[in-house]
Amino acid sequence: MTDEEIRTRLRDAGLRVTVGRVAVYSHLLNAHGPLRHGDLVDALDHLHLDQATVYRNLMDLTGAGLVVRTDLGDHTWRFEARGLEHSDGPHPHFVCTVCGDVKCLDEVRVSFTGHDGEVHDFGRPNLQVQLRGTCDACT
Q1: In a domain, 88, yes or no
Q2: Closest by Cα among 17, 28, 34 to 78
Q3: Which one of 15, 16, 31, 40 has the fewest beta carbons within 10 angstroms of its own beta carbon?
Q4: Cα(74)–Cα(93) distance, integer angstroms
Q5: For residue 107, what are the domain limits?
Q6: What number of CA atoms fall less than 13 Å from residue 97's CA on the CB side?
Q7: Cβ neighbourhood burial of 49 (10 Å; 0-12, 13-18, 19+)
């Protein structure tokens, strides 16, 4: 997504377009999994954005529905952009139990079938599916 497309998406969501907001959203759009606040602060250090600015932008983007906030069981919020490959339903995350790395499994679609064979829609915003194990780097 180009910077102009990002700016348009921010405006359409009712947000002011700022350098920090574009940078935070752009970084999340290009990430391969959910990121912690500290990950974003470190990655955007070259822009001299303070921690509070990054946090406020994350909260604004989340409130506007452009970003999803997730707790993967370690009491640490992680953030990921919505509206991309996995926007059409819940997707699982793989969490390495050794190093803590988190990856989106975008190619995996989740559906729930009841005992009656009927598919149930659990596409609610708070639905989270996790797979835990050891990543290739830690094996």
Answers
A1: no
A2: 34
A3: 16
A4: 14
A5: 93-138
A6: 5
A7: buried
The whole model's pTM is what?
0.73
| Buried-exposed string 69-82: b where 16+ CB fall within 10 A, e elsewhere | bbebeeeebbbbbb
Q: How many separate domains does the chain show?
A: 2
CA pair distance 32, 29, nearest whole angstrom: 8
Residue that finishes a domain, picked among 38, 56, 81? 81
DSSP class of 125: T
Q: How far apart are the first and last CA of the chain?
A: 34
Q: Which residue has the tokens 């907001």?
A: 21
> In this predicted model, what pLDDT tens digit does every residue of 84-124 receive, in sequence order?
554 445 667 788 888 878 887 767 776 777 788 777 665 55
pLDDT of residue 17: 98
Same domain as 97, residue 73? no
